[in-house]
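User: These chains co-purify. Model them together.
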Amino acid sequence: MKANTTHDKLELLIERCKPFAPLRTAVVHPCDEPALAGAVAAHQARIIQAILVGPAERIRALAQSAGLALDDISLVDAPHSHAATEQAVALVRTGQADALMKGSLHTDELMAAVVHEDAGLRTERRISHVFVMDVPTYPKLLLITDAAVNIVPDLEVKADIVRNAIDLACALGVATPKVAILSAVETITSKLPSTIDAAALCKMAERGQIVGALLDGPLALDNAISRHAAAIKNLSSVVAGDADVLLVPDLEAGNMLVKELVYLANAGTAGLVLGARVPIILTSRADNSGDRVASCALAVLYAHRGGD
Amino acid sequence: MKANTTHDKLELLIERCKPFAPLRTAVVHPCDEPALAGAVAAHQARIIQAILVGPAERIRALAQSAGLALDDISLVDAPHSHAATEQAVALVRTGQADALMKGSLHTDELMAAVVHEDAGLRTERRISHVFVMDVPTYPKLLLITDAAVNIVPDLEVKADIVRNAIDLACALGVATPKVAILSAVETITSKLPSTIDAAALCKMAERGQIVGALLDGPLALDNAISRHAAAIKNLSSVVAGDADVLLVPDLEAGNMLVKELVYLANAGTAGLVLGARVPIILTSRADNSGDRVASCALAVLYAHRGGD
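Assistant: Joint model of the two components:
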C-alpha cells in the first residue's frame, strides 16, 4: 500500500501548468474507477481537456456509480479497448488531441497502436518511458528511465532514452540536467556491459550526439545520488551525488528501483512516454488520483517545452 | 626499399642515452648479417652491452665474413634458436641481462618463450608492441600500437596496450602523452565496435584505470594528427591534431599504417615490446642498422624511466 505522504515537488509541477490552456487529451478506455477518476480530476483541475474514448454507456454508468461529473467532458464512443485505442490515436493524427492518456487497458495494447508502422505515432526517436519521482529524502525530482517500455535496450536505444529524458527534464525547468548512467560499479569492465554502454553514452555527449545535458557513468546508485558517497570514492564528476536523471541498465533493475522508492521511501510518482508524436500519459494501476494529475502535468509542461 | 632519409627525432633518442651505462642486452640468435650488425653497432655506440646468445662458431664466422669486430662482446653458445631463446630468457631471470633483443628468428618463437607460464618473463601487464615512428612531415615522434603482437585485442588488452605506450612515451620525455584512439569515425556507433572501445578507454582514464595521459577517441586518423582536419570537424579535444600515441583498432590496420609511413612517407622506425619483465627489442627484417640502434635506445630510455 502506498503511503499517504505529501509530494510538494510534484504538486509544484501541477502549479506550473496554470498558465497553459488545458491539454486536449484522448483518454483511452477509462473503464475502471481509478482511470476515470484520474482523468476527471485532471480535467477539473484544468490540466487537461479530457476526451474520453471508450464504451460510452459503460463509462457513463461508471461515472454515476462513482459520483464523477462528466458534464463538460467529450465522450467518443468505441465498443472495446482495441477500437478505443485506434480512435484515440486517430484523434492525435487528425490534430484533434495533443496527448494520449492510458485508461484501463494493458500498456502493450496501447503501445502497439502507438508504434504501428502506418497508423501509429512514431517519430525518428525511439519511444521510452520516464518516471518522475518525488522522493522526500532527495532534494529535487528524480527522473528514472526506462523502467516501463524498453526491456533490454542496446546502446542506440539507450541514447534515445537519454535524449527523451533530457527533453523532459528541461521541460520541467532543469536548465542542464545531470544524467547518471547507472551500473553496479564506477569502473569500466567488459564483464559488465552496462559500464561499456555508459562510457559510450558519455562520449556520445562529448561528440554532440547527445546534447543539452551533463552525462556521467558508470555510477553505482550511491554515487549517483549521494555527494558523500561520491566523495568517498574520489569521483571527480559534476553528476555524481547530484543526478536529475538516472538511466537504468534495463527494465528489471529500473522497475525494482522505482518500486523500492515508492514502497520504502514514500516516493510519489508521475510518468510519461516520450518519443512519439505526442506525450503519452502512462499511469499504472496503483497510481492514486494525485499521481495521475501529476502525470498529466508532465504532459502539459512537455508539450509546452521551448516556451510556447 | 626504404628511403635514405635522416631521422633527427630518432637520432636524438640515441643522443639521450649517452648519460646511461650500456644496457646489458641478450641478443637472441643473431645469425644473419643485419641482426648481428645491428647488435654490434648498438654495442659499439655504447647503447647496449651485447651478450650474443646463439651458435658461437656460426656467429664468429658471420662476423668475420661481414667484417664485424666482436672483441669485447660476450658470446653464449647455444646450438639453435630454441636453445638461444631459452638461455637468453634465463639470463634475464637470473639478473644477468636487462633487455632482450631479437636476432634472426621468428618473433613468435621469441615471444612464446617470453610469455611462457613458468619460465617466462610475464608481469601483470599484458605484453604489447609499440612502434616509434619518425615521420618527417609530423613535428614529433609518433608512437603506434599495437601493430605487431596483439592481433584483435579486446577492451582489457587495449587498456594494457595503452598503458604500455604511455610508459614508453613518458620514458621518451613526453610529460603527458596525448593518446588518440583510432577508428574510422569520430562518433559512437555500435556498428563499429572500435568506437565503443574508444569511449570505454576514455572513461577508464577518467576513472583512474589508465593514468598519466590524455586520451581521446574515437578519432579518424586525419583528426588525430591534423589540427586543421580536427578544426573542420569542430572537435573539442586536446588530443585531436596533436597525438603522441595512436592506438590502432587491430594489428592489420596498424601494420598497414606503419608500412605506409615507412614506404610512402619516409618514416624511420624503432620498436619495443613492453609489458614483460624487461624491454624486448623487436627489430624487423627490413630494419637498417640505424633503426636497430634506435630501437636499442628505446630500451635504454625505457629501462631508465622514472629518473634512475
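Chain B has a mean pLDDT of 94.
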